[in-house]
Amino acid sequence: MDYFENKFYKREKRIRRNYEIDDSLYTRLEEYSTIYEASVADLINACIENLINNDNGDITVYEKDEREISVLHTILIRESNIKGLDTLKDKYGLSIYKLVNIAIKSTLEE
Fold first, then answer.
1. Domain 13-108's class?
2. Hey, where are the domains in the chain?
3. pTM of the predicted model as reported, rounded to 2 decimal places
4. 73 exposed, middle or buried (CB, 10 Å; 0-12, 13-18, 19+)?
């Protein structure tokens, strides 16, 4: 069973959330979903988890291009990620929308 525990996540409740995501970031995630065996929602969950796990007390807020549009997407987010985002929101005073976009951008730039 250790093999499966290292290979797959354990089942966790997912909650439907609406987030405005910068279109250029979402398009890149769609491209990655054709390469990897993961949906866009899986990739977003991974990005959020990366932000939460690598929180070192400093989150870089990037400046959004004025021509960039944000589109509302409904995504199934793992419950632990929602709790982690709430913690980061309280810690940094940033909106969940901004945190999700920061998570995606910072993960894509790694």
1. mainly alpha
2. 13-108
3. 0.89
4. middle
